Amino acid sequence: MGWLSRYFKGSSHRVSEGQYHGNYGDYGVWNERSSSWDALSEYENEDVDRAIAISLSEEEQKKAKATENASTLEEDEQLARALQESLNAASPPRGNGHAFQQAPLLFSSGFRICAGCNTEIGHGRFLSCMDAYWHPECFRCHACSQPISDYEFSMSGKYPYHKSCYKELYHPKCDVCKQFIPTNMNGFIEYRALPFWLQKYCPSHEMDGTPRCCSCERMEPRDTKYVTLDDGRMLCLECLDSAVMDTNDCQPLYLDIQEFYESLNMKIGQQVPLLFVERQALNEAMEGEKNGHHHLPETRGLCLSEEQTVSRILRRPRIGAGNKIMNMITEPCTLTRRCEVTAILILYGLPRLLTGCILAHEMMHAWLRLQGYRSLSQEVEEGICQVLAHMWLDSQIISGSGNNVASTSSSSASTTSKKGSRFQFEIKLGDFFKHQIESDTSPAYGDGFRAGNRAVLQYGLRRTLDHIKLTGTFPC
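RESULT FIELD:
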């Protein structure tokens, strides 16, 4: 109507009593008390009609624009409301068994209590998550106690965490490379593990040349250096601590196992030579042996009944640069047959309990041959030999506990701590070797042990051996 007013002001005629009623955007209604419109000339009437038409057209455009703006504003409000409802109602994505939730930032328009500080939020910004309302500065990580300002956060139980803090606390790390174990192509965390030692590692380490201890089978951590034996085997430092390196080192252990057999009324009448050898010499002797059974893929002991010349380790080697074995001296030893057993060969460089376990097994082979047990099946012979090795390990673990207490009672604190640590590992190692025997899946060594052990537990060792000699089988 402003254009119409300006148009009339420029005219020589007044419309002094005209009144406009209505709101912005509405069409105006004019009420005239005088008939001054009649006094206008026909030409002037045409100008007025044109001015009114133009003014009405402007008013219609303004009304259409206002209606469009109002409609757009209403649509924006509906969209924002729908988005907010979807954020509150949608299920959060899952990760590693814990929810990753979203924390939308809203503006308060009513009475709300902060779940963090228990005070009124008032009219200001707030977070709506975990079925509660929070001041932005009160919604904090349970690990680092800093506010969570990220759009996503993690939960463990009823506590929120920064995603980075949650990962540091709960995402498994590789015990080899010390890095977070990566997810596979399906988004799952996949790793390999040695459950007995609670060691977990990335699957890639099984193919990237990471060394594995030939005794305890643990993978070499990146911050540790295993010892490389002369035949290429790797030995961890804990297993190295009690490793038996040559024949002289093994003599006390040999006597201990002979006494163990005598305590079972199974004295070995012949003095069987004991030789410590490298892997190559053991493999060569195994190829020349016509009788006996061998635990593949790794044979670590052998009871010989044939005449052979074997290269034995004469002097204990030393550890040189790069944790490598150096200065090993060997000599050939010709074995002549004077009885059913010519010698027992043991792989060098294994810890005391594993060496003793292998020796107890091979001495049982020798005892069976010297006592006239003939033509036994592989399952029966290897099974009963494993039973004796398992029994010897048990005896060592039980007796070792008492010996350790007596030997450390009068030593210094630091020495006691070191001895105690070594002893605890040796006990753990003994349990591991027992576990290996018990869980062996091979028909001869595994199934044979379990059948033999059941027979010994039910009937006793002597009756089981008598039954084997008569029938060639375990008693049922």
